[in-house]
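Hi F.,

I've been meaning to write this up properly since the lab meeting, where we talked about keeping a consistent format for the predictions we share between groups. The idea is simple: the sequence comes first, exactly as it goes in, then the C-alpha coordinates exactly as they come out, then a line or two of notes. No screenshots and no reformatting. I'm using this chain as the first example so we have something concrete to point to.
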Amino acid sequence: MPLVDRTFAPSDCFAEIRPRGHDKQLSPPIDSMQSDIRFTSDISIERKAPNMWNGDEFSSLVAAQTSWTLEKRGDCLEIVNDEGLSALIFGGERQILVETALFPASSVLDKASLDDLILRSHHLVPLSTVSISKIGTEDFYVAFGALSTESQASVVLEEVETLFENTGEFLELYGEFLKSEDVA
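Output, unedited:
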Protein backbone atom coordinates (compact mmCIF):
# COMPACT_ATOMS: atom_id res chain seq x y z
CA MET A 1 0.00 0.00 0.00
CA PRO A 2 1.41 3.44 -0.88
CA LEU A 3 2.35 5.75 1.98
CA VAL A 4 0.24 8.56 0.54
CA ASP A 5 -3.37 7.68 -0.19
CA ARG A 6 -4.82 10.75 -1.93
CA THR A 7 -8.13 9.43 -3.16
CA PHE A 8 -10.03 11.80 -0.87
CA ALA A 9 -9.50 14.52 1.72
CA PRO A 10 -11.79 16.67 3.87
CA SER A 11 -11.26 19.55 1.43
CA ASP A 12 -13.30 17.55 -1.06
CA CYS A 13 -16.32 17.95 1.25
CA PHE A 14 -16.35 21.74 0.99
CA ALA A 15 -19.07 21.49 -1.69
CA GLU A 16 -21.69 24.12 -0.90
CA ILE A 17 -19.73 25.29 2.14
CA ARG A 18 -18.38 28.80 2.14
CA PRO A 19 -15.10 28.92 4.07
CA ARG A 20 -15.01 31.57 6.76
CA GLY A 21 -15.23 35.08 5.33
CA HIS A 22 -15.53 34.06 1.67
CA ASP A 23 -18.69 34.70 -0.31
CA LYS A 24 -17.93 32.44 -3.24
CA GLN A 25 -19.81 29.12 -3.29
CA LEU A 26 -17.42 26.21 -3.66
CA SER A 27 -18.11 23.12 -5.72
CA PRO A 28 -15.12 20.79 -5.74
CA PRO A 29 -15.05 17.83 -8.07
CA ILE A 30 -15.71 14.70 -6.06
CA ASP A 31 -14.87 11.78 -8.26
CA SER A 32 -13.18 8.65 -6.90
CA MET A 33 -14.09 8.88 -3.21
CA GLN A 34 -13.13 5.81 -1.22
CA SER A 35 -13.88 5.35 2.43
CA ASP A 36 -13.76 2.69 5.10
CA ILE A 37 -16.84 4.16 6.75
CA ARG A 38 -20.45 4.48 5.73
CA PHE A 39 -22.65 7.31 6.92
CA THR A 40 -26.25 6.61 7.85
CA SER A 41 -29.08 9.10 7.58
CA ASP A 42 -28.78 10.14 11.24
CA ILE A 43 -25.14 11.26 10.84
CA SER A 44 -23.80 8.19 12.56
CA ILE A 45 -20.98 6.09 11.20
CA GLU A 46 -21.07 2.32 10.90
CA ARG A 47 -17.89 0.29 11.16
CA LYS A 48 -16.79 -1.54 8.03
CA ALA A 49 -13.32 -2.46 9.26
CA PRO A 50 -12.06 -3.64 12.62
CA ASN A 51 -10.59 -0.98 14.93
CA MET A 52 -12.43 1.83 13.12
CA TRP A 53 -13.37 4.78 15.31
CA ASN A 54 -16.92 4.85 16.58
CA GLY A 55 -18.89 7.62 14.89
CA ASP A 56 -21.93 7.14 17.13
CA GLU A 57 -19.83 7.77 20.22
CA PHE A 58 -18.23 10.76 18.50
CA SER A 59 -21.63 12.19 17.51
CA SER A 60 -22.73 11.91 21.16
CA LEU A 61 -19.63 13.77 22.33
CA VAL A 62 -20.22 16.54 19.77
CA ALA A 63 -23.87 16.79 20.82
CA ALA A 64 -22.64 17.48 24.37
CA GLN A 65 -20.85 20.56 23.01
CA THR A 66 -23.92 22.80 23.14
CA SER A 67 -22.32 25.53 21.02
CA TRP A 68 -21.42 23.17 18.13
CA THR A 69 -23.51 21.82 15.28
CA LEU A 70 -22.87 18.57 13.42
CA GLU A 71 -23.93 17.84 9.86
CA LYS A 72 -23.11 15.22 7.22
CA ARG A 73 -21.35 16.64 4.13
CA GLY A 74 -20.81 13.96 1.52
CA ASP A 75 -18.31 11.52 3.01
CA CYS A 76 -17.41 13.93 5.82
CA LEU A 77 -18.86 15.22 9.05
CA GLU A 78 -18.89 19.00 9.39
CA ILE A 79 -18.69 20.56 12.84
CA VAL A 80 -19.37 24.28 13.17
CA ASN A 81 -18.45 26.03 16.42
CA ASP A 82 -20.16 29.05 18.02
CA GLU A 83 -17.84 31.41 16.09
CA GLY A 84 -18.93 29.98 12.74
CA LEU A 85 -15.68 28.12 12.14
CA SER A 86 -16.11 24.85 10.24
CA ALA A 87 -14.07 21.68 10.66
CA LEU A 88 -14.50 18.69 8.38
CA ILE A 89 -13.75 15.16 9.53
CA PHE A 90 -13.06 12.27 7.18
CA GLY A 91 -12.25 8.70 8.17
CA GLY A 92 -10.10 7.01 5.55
CA GLU A 93 -8.43 3.65 5.28
CA ARG A 94 -5.29 4.65 7.20
CA GLN A 95 -6.18 7.80 9.11
CA ILE A 96 -8.82 10.24 10.27
CA LEU A 97 -8.34 13.80 8.98
CA VAL A 98 -9.77 16.92 10.62
CA GLU A 99 -9.46 20.05 8.47
CA THR A 100 -10.53 23.69 8.27
CA ALA A 101 -9.97 26.28 5.54
CA LEU A 102 -7.90 29.29 6.66
CA PHE A 103 -7.84 31.61 3.63
CA PRO A 104 -7.56 31.47 -0.17
CA ALA A 105 -4.03 31.42 -1.58
CA SER A 106 -5.06 34.32 -3.81
CA SER A 107 -5.31 36.53 -0.71
CA VAL A 108 -1.62 36.08 0.16
CA LEU A 109 0.62 39.08 -0.58
CA ASP A 110 3.97 37.23 -0.51
CA LYS A 111 3.53 33.46 -0.84
CA ALA A 112 7.24 32.63 -0.64
CA SER A 113 7.64 34.49 2.66
CA LEU A 114 4.44 33.02 4.11
CA ASP A 115 5.42 29.48 3.09
CA ASP A 116 8.85 30.01 4.66
CA LEU A 117 7.24 31.17 7.91
CA ILE A 118 4.86 28.19 7.90
CA LEU A 119 7.71 25.72 7.45
CA ARG A 120 9.78 27.37 10.18
CA SER A 121 6.98 27.79 12.73
CA HIS A 122 4.37 25.05 12.31
CA HIS A 123 5.88 23.02 15.15
CA LEU A 124 5.04 25.88 17.55
CA VAL A 125 1.30 25.25 17.19
CA PRO A 126 0.49 21.82 18.68
CA LEU A 127 -1.34 19.03 16.86
CA SER A 128 -2.13 21.03 13.69
CA THR A 129 -0.34 21.46 10.39
CA VAL A 130 -0.91 23.89 7.52
CA SER A 131 -1.02 22.85 3.88
CA ILE A 132 -2.50 24.04 0.60
CA SER A 133 -5.55 22.21 -0.75
CA LYS A 134 -7.67 22.78 -3.82
CA ILE A 135 -11.26 23.63 -2.92
CA GLY A 136 -13.31 23.83 -6.06
CA THR A 137 -10.97 25.49 -8.51
CA GLU A 138 -9.14 27.62 -5.95
CA ASP A 139 -6.17 26.85 -3.72
CA PHE A 140 -6.71 27.43 0.01
CA TYR A 141 -4.36 27.32 2.95
CA VAL A 142 -5.90 24.80 5.34
CA ALA A 143 -5.10 23.69 8.87
CA PHE A 144 -5.47 20.01 9.63
CA GLY A 145 -4.75 17.25 12.09
CA ALA A 146 -4.39 13.54 11.39
CA LEU A 147 -5.16 10.66 13.72
CA SER A 148 -5.10 6.90 13.61
CA THR A 149 -8.33 5.18 12.62
CA GLU A 150 -7.98 3.39 15.96
CA SER A 151 -8.32 6.69 17.86
CA GLN A 152 -11.00 6.90 20.52
CA ALA A 153 -13.85 9.32 19.79
CA SER A 154 -12.72 11.52 22.70
CA VAL A 155 -9.30 11.90 21.05
CA VAL A 156 -10.93 12.93 17.76
CA LEU A 157 -13.00 15.48 19.69
CA GLU A 158 -9.82 16.82 21.30
CA GLU A 159 -8.32 17.19 17.81
CA VAL A 160 -11.33 19.24 16.67
CA GLU A 161 -11.15 21.47 19.77
CA THR A 162 -7.42 21.98 19.25
CA LEU A 163 -7.90 22.76 15.56
CA PHE A 164 -10.50 25.41 16.43
CA GLU A 165 -8.08 26.98 18.95
CA ASN A 166 -5.11 26.78 16.59
CA THR A 167 -7.00 28.38 13.70
CA GLY A 168 -7.01 31.70 15.56
CA GLU A 169 -3.29 31.29 16.26
CA PHE A 170 -2.56 30.63 12.58
CA LEU A 171 -4.64 33.59 11.41
CA GLU A 172 -2.90 35.89 13.88
CA LEU A 173 0.55 34.56 12.98
CA TYR A 174 -0.01 34.78 9.21
CA GLY A 175 -2.23 37.89 9.11
CA GLU A 176 0.57 40.23 8.04
CA PHE A 177 0.87 38.25 4.78
CA LEU A 178 -2.79 38.65 3.82
CA LYS A 179 -4.55 41.36 1.90
CA SER A 180 -6.36 43.46 4.51
CA GLU A 181 -9.87 42.50 3.35
CA ASP A 182 -9.08 38.82 3.95
CA VAL A 183 -7.89 39.13 7.55
CA ALA A 184 -10.37 37.58 9.99
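Notes:
Residues 1-8, 20-52 have pLDDT under 50 and may be disordered.
Residues 10-178 form a domain with the Yope Regulator; Chain: A, fold (CATH 3.30.1460.10).

If this format works for you, I'll send the rest the same way.

G.
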